[in-house]
Design goal:
282 residues, alpha/beta, Rossmann fold, six-stranded parallel beta sheet
Length: 282
């Protein structure tokens, strides 16, 4: 069994982004610009944004966080996104989710210029992914694919199971696996006989947010297991969607929680921001 070390691979991706950002500065006389919109005071979002801000600075990006109060009207949030779209010095825009309940999150996302959509969540970005054309891809699915590539996990012709059908992870990672010529199945809360679907799969991506949903005994010997779930138990410990200790006895490759897919998300955000800058200047 090979442990897919997300921390180590994320460090490599960040170093690559920093090198590309330095080259961009030398060519264009400015740093790639990444701006984050944070509405409200959700504690988890505050932590995520601070981590993104620090990572962007270390990678040589020109970053800024726009902090808005929790009662900011819809029109004001959309107007800010419009201003960021119009600023030529800004290459990437990320709206931190979730937004306060009174806001229409999808309407805000839809306002982002697709060329600056470093989270890969606009309808245009999704359409480019479906069509197999060049575009900015969602960060967590991109991180999953980078982990598989780094480990040289064979994908072409193999059976891949994605458990979860969200726009953030499930659907895009399924399309990315399909683009690598895997034979892809998407499972979800209404899938019958999930154990059988897992047992026949060479690659399993679990992204549903239910601790221990995937039993270790279900894993096909030698399969690659990517656990996207982050669930905090009553004891305060983080657990994934996969029964880790039992699964690692059967898997060929597996990600831990924490330290697996999680660190890859911010790393791929930095990579996307530099890519957006490069494409916009070209």
């Amino acid at each position: 069994m090979a442990l897919l070390d997300g921390k180590a691979i994320a460090k490599k991706v960040r170093a690559e982004a920093a090198e590309r950002a330095a080259a961009f500065l030398a060519r264009h006389g400015r740093r790639p610009g990444l701006h984050v919109v944070l509405v409200g005071d959700d504690p988890a979002s505050q932590v995520y944004v601070r981590n993104k801000e620090r990572a962007a600075g270390k990678a040589g990006l020109e970053g800024k966080v726009h902090r808005l109060s929790a009662d900011t009207p819809q029109g004001d949030v959309e107007a800010l996104v419009g201003e960021l779209n119009a600023d030529p010095r800004i290459d990437g825009i990320l709206v931190q989710l979730p937004l306060p309940a009174h806001l229409d999150a999808q309407a805000v996302i839809d306002r982002i210029d697709p060329a600056k959509d470093v989270d890969g969540l606009t309808p245009q970005s999704a359409g480019l992914l479906v069509d197999g054309r060049r575009g900015l891809r969602p960060c967590t699915p991109s991180g999953c694919m980078r982990l598989l590539h780094e480990a040289k996990v064979p994908l072409a012709g193999r059976r891949a199971l994605v458990i979860g059908r969200s726009l953030l992870v499930g659907k895009p990672v399924a399309l990315m696996l399909l683009a690598e010529n895997a034979t892809v199945t998407i499972a979800h809360s209404r899938t019958e006989d999930l154990a059988a679907r897992v047992a026949e799969s060479d690659v399993v991506v679990a992204a549903v947010g239910r601790p221990g949903l995937v039993r270790g005994a279900w894993i096909k010997p030698g399969a690659a297991v990517l656990d996207v779930g982050i669930n905090r138990g009553a004891d305060g410990r983080l657990r994934g969607d996969v029964e880790f200790e039992a699964a690692r006895e059967r898997a060929g490759w597996i990600t831990p929680v924490p330290g697996g897919v999680g660190p890859m998300t911010i790393a791929m955000l930095l990579s996307n921001a530099v890519t957006a800058a490069e494409w916009r200047e070209s």
